[in-house]
Amino acid sequence: MSNPLFDLTGKVALVTGSTKGIGRSIVEELARCGAKVVVSSRKADACEQVADELKALGFEAIAIPCHVGKKDDLQNLVNKTLETWGRIDVLVCNAATNPVYGPTSEMTDEAWDKIMETNVKGTFWLTNMVLPQMAELGGGSVILLSSIAGLRGNTTIGTYGVSKAAEAALARNLAVEWGPKNIRVNSIAPGLIKTDFAKALWEDPVRVKRAEEKTPLRRIGDPIDIAGLAVFLACPASAYVTGQVIVADGGETVC
Fold first, then answer.
1. Which residues are CB-neighbours of 191 under 8 A, at least 6 positions away?
2. pLDDT digit string, tens, across residues 80-89
């Protein structure tokens, strides 16, 4: 028997960066809850493959490629979604970039701009495009992917962390601005998750062992660990939750 608290039947969910890793897991689980889903990432063939696999399972899905650092791409993403299904009820801003590793003192202007354009400005653009139509629908849910790197200092991915702290702050401000329109905006701050994005960390036996030992659950995360939280935030189950940064890190940051 279905639970109405986790029922997204008739809703449309748009998930950026949803052809692999956390984004793919999120788009799959939203589809399982009944949502019509939009699969999006930079490569059209990857989008089509994931959408086809979802449709083969009986879910409703469309593929719309998009580079989230390009405003025209984002507008096309929104326009095509609305042309197809006429609404966007759930927006998950998952796509992000981190092209360099190292201290902020060694960051070039170009690398700084790329991280901020994609992770922060792209999210700012996309939310501004989607939120007005959500208000017209009478409500919705927006989920921004932050990171525990945005909660504490870091000598390796510090600039990425700055961008993720900015996204968490953006979620809080949007929650205040759009709450009166029954729109909830939250962010998720994952710890180390086993994705291609973090492969350099979890493929190193020494580093992953160190990470597991300092995490109370004694393991790094899997994409499904974040997808479950995203489903909660998208569904009526979280109807009274907004403006929050919810940490999913196996307990790493409480130590």
1. 148, 215, 220, 221, 247, 248, 249, 250, 252, 253
2. 999 999 999 9
| DSSP strands (E only) in 97-225 | 140-145, 183-190
The strand pairing partners of 38, in sequence order, are 14, 62
Per the listing, tokens 């989230």 go with 68
Mean pLDDT of 195-215: 82
Name the amino acid, one letter, at 199. Answer: K
Residue 95's closest CA among 116, 73, 130, 122?
A: 122
Residues taking part in catalysis: 160
- Name the token pair of 205: 């036996």
As a whole number of angstroms, the distance between CA 69 and CA 181 comes to 27
Q: pLDDT digits over 11-44, tens only?
A: 999 999 999 999 999 999 999 999 999 999 999 9
Residue type, 123: T
pLDDT 10s digits, 138-147 = 999 999 999 9
Count Cβ atoms below 10 Å from residue 11 Cβ, excluding itself.
Answer: 22
The DSSP code for 33 is T
Residue that has been written with the tokens 């990470």 in this structure? 211
Main-chain phi, psi angles of 19, to 5 degrees? -100, -5
* Domains of the chain listed by start with CATH number: 4-193+223-248 (3.40.50.720)
Report the chain's terminal Cα–Cα distance, integer Å: 40
CA angle (181 as vertex; 145, 242 as ends), nearest 5: 35
DSSP notation for 196-214: GGGHHHHTSHHHHHHHHHT
Cα angle 17, 22, 25; round to 5? 100
